[in-house]
Structure formats: C-alpha cells, structure tokens
C-alpha cells in the first residue's frame, strides 16, 4: 500500500513538472512569435543608393525606414550646401512602400534678410514632395558661422520663423545637436566612438579649442526646446547624451515635446548597467524611437554579386545585433562594448519599434 502511495505522489509531481515545462515552452514560443510579428520603423537611415536585395530584405523583416537628408558644407565652397535630398526622393518614389523622407535645414546665409523666407519656401516644397520631418545637424554649434564669425546655435532667434512654420505644418524636427561628450575628450581606444573620430577628425572637438563646449551647445539646445513647447522635437542619437541615461531622463521630464531616437548610440548604452538602461526604456517607453544610422553608398553597378551578398549579410548582422540587445538578455558586443541585452517586454518593443514613430510622423 505504501509503495502504491509513493508511486502516486511521484506520478503527480512528474505530471506537474511536465505541465510547467510545457507551459513555459508554450509561453516562450508565444513570446518568440509575437516578436517575429512586430513591424519595425527605422527612423534614421541613409540608404543613398538602390539595391536589388532591399525589397526582399525589408519585407522579410517587416521593416520600413526614414531616409534622413545628409546636408553638409560643400568642400569647394563653404557658402554652398551639398545634400542627398534629390537622390532620396528618387529612391522613395521608386520604393514608396519602403521609405519615408526627412528634409534638412542648415544655417548657411543666416545673415541675409530673406534667409527664413527662402528656407520656408524650400521646406514647403519638400514637405509637398513627402518630407515627414526636418533635420537640423551638428553644424549648429560646431561648424556653421555667421558674418560676425560666431558659431550659430540652434536657439538663434533668426531661426524662429522657421520653427513657427513647422509648428503650423505639424512637422517634427529631428535634432542632431552636439556630438557625444567624447568628442571633447582625448581620443580613447576604449570609447565606442574611437573609430568614428579616428576616421573623422574634423568632428573631434578636442582638437579645435574654438568650437564651443559641449555644455554650451547642449544648453542652447535645451533653451530652443523650452522656447518652442508646441514644436515636436525628436532628439537624434539619444540627444547626444547617450553616455548617461539619467541626463536624458532629466530632459524628458522637463520637456514634454521632446523624444529621442537611438541611432548609432547603442554602444554608449552598452557601457551602462543593463538594469538601469532597461528601467529607463520602460519608464520612457512612449518617448523612445528605434533608429540605426545604417545605410549604404556607391552605385550597385560597381559591386559584384559576392560583394552585394556580403553587404546584405553585414546589414542583417547589424540589425540582428541591435535586436538582440533590445529583446533578449543574451551577451552582446556593440562597438567594442560588452554587456547583456535589455530583454524588454514585447509591448515596450512594439512602441519603440513602430507605435511611437507612427504617432510622431502621422503615418
């Protein structure tokens, strides 16, 4: 009788264990399926050229992106601006189901009496061509000067008519103002930005004492946001404060019209404790958008089939790495920074990947 009783207890315990295992497996499968079904909007890309694989690549990943205009001073004539706009318009028109557009604003010519009027006319035309946002770049504060030889800051009152126009049009501004703090520090091989400043020493502010300080440029950015509470502002690259999520949180609490996107700053996030970063993402889940800064360059005609396949594989690997960081607790290496992923809940991921972008851009 005792043997029968012991057998019954063991059978019940084994059955419960099997049931729990099946429940866990079922929950895990469900979670994985939900993740696979999430659509993705990458709000910050630079696909300068078409590729034969782009359609399939994006459809497989349920992904669309925003092509963000690259506007820089012309190398041969600093009074002129070289842009990517026309190429992006052509690419978006060719693939209307893959891409949206983001225009840009530079401060070149700000001293002329009709500067704001001309820029508004241009932006009106580009909004009609499909621009969902307008980008301002780190040239404000770091590169472009007016006739008095002063660096133009983003809160310059001469720009105000343009902000008023964008408010009327309900067009957000993507603001890449300042560089990461590391730009004002000596080159550090352990920094996630070592490669960038090694390749682009012109933006390594440490070497140019006349460039305003990081604090000065961030303060001007904050003042601009405070002065335009009705303007929707998406601070690119985690607001150039990606080294410290507490610093970002302080601004998000202070400025209700401010959001941030993540492009090219996952390495900075990975230098901080994952539990702390996860808490930041969960608290501000309605104010964070997914972005990468990924793109391409060069005509496809100059690439053979193996090179195209390698390019696609690298792009897939780059996206997978960021997805691993956001959605799992696996070990991950991003820009030389080793950490574990954030394992964000599916509902938070949906907001970061798609909902926040559709709400901001009225998609």
From TrEMBL:
<dbReference type="InterPro" id="IPR032466">
    <property type="entry name" value="Metal_Hydrolase"/>
</dbReference>
<dbReference type="InterPro" id="IPR032465">
    <property type="entry name" value="ACMSD"/>
</dbReference>
<keyword id="KW-0732">Signal</keyword>
<keyword id="KW-0456">Lyase</keyword>
<protein>
    <submittedName>
        <fullName>Amidohydrolase family protein</fullName>
    </submittedName>
</protein>
<dbReference type="InterPro" id="IPR006680">
    <property type="entry name" value="Amidohydro-rel"/>
</dbReference>
<feature type="signal peptide">
    <location>
        <begin position="1"/>
        <end position="21"/>
    </location>
</feature>
<feature type="domain" description="Amidohydrolase-related">
    <location>
        <begin position="41"/>
        <end position="363"/>
    </location>
</feature>
<dbReference type="Pfam" id="PF04909">
    <property type="entry name" value="Amidohydro_2"/>
</dbReference>
């Amino acid at each position: 009788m005792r043997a029968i009783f012991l057998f019954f207890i063991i059978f019940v315990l084994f059955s419960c264990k099997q049931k729990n295992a099946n429940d866990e497996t079922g929950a895990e499968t469900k979670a994985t399926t939900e993740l696979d079904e999430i659509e993705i909007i990458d709000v910050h890309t630079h696909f300068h050229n078409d590729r034969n694989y782009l359609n399939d690549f994006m459809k497989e990943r349920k992904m669309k992106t925003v092509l963000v205009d690259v506007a820089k001073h012309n190398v041969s004539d600093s009074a002129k601006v070289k842009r990517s706009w026309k190429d992006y318009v052509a690419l978006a028109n060719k693939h209307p189901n893959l891409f949206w557009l983001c225009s840009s604003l530079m401060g070149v010519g700000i001293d002329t009496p009709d500067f704001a009027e001309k820029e508004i006319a241009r932006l009106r035309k580009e909004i009609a061509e499909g621009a969902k946002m307008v980008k301002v770049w780190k040239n404000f504060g770091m590169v472009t000067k007016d006739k008095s030889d002063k660096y133009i800051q983003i809160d310059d009152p001469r720009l105000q008519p343009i902000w008023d126009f964008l408010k009327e049009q309900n067009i957000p501004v993507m603001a890449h103002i300042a560089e990461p703090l590391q730009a004002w520090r000596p080159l550090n091989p352990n920094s996630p930005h070592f490669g960038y400043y090694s390749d682009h020493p012109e933006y390594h502010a440490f070497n140019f004492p006349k460039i305003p300080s990081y604090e000065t440029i961030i303060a001007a950015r904050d003042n601009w946001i405070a002065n335009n509470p009705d303007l929707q502002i998406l601070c690119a690259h985690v607001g150039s404060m990606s080294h410290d999520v507490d610093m970002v949180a302080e601004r998000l609490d202070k400025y209700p019209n401010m959001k941030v996107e993540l492009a090219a700053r996952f390495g900075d996030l990975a230098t901080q404790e994952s539990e702390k970063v996860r808490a930041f993402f969960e608290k501000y889940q309605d104010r964070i958008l997914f972005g990468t800064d990924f793109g391409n360059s060069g005509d496809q005609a100059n690439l053979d089939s193996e090179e195209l396949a390698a390019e696609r594989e690298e792009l897939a690997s780059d996206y997978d790495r960021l997805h691993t960081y956001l959605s799992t607790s696996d070990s991950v290496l991003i820009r030389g920074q080793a950490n574990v992923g954030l394992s964000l809940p599916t509902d938070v991921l949906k907001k970061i990947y798609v909902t926040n972008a559709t709400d901001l851009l009225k998609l």
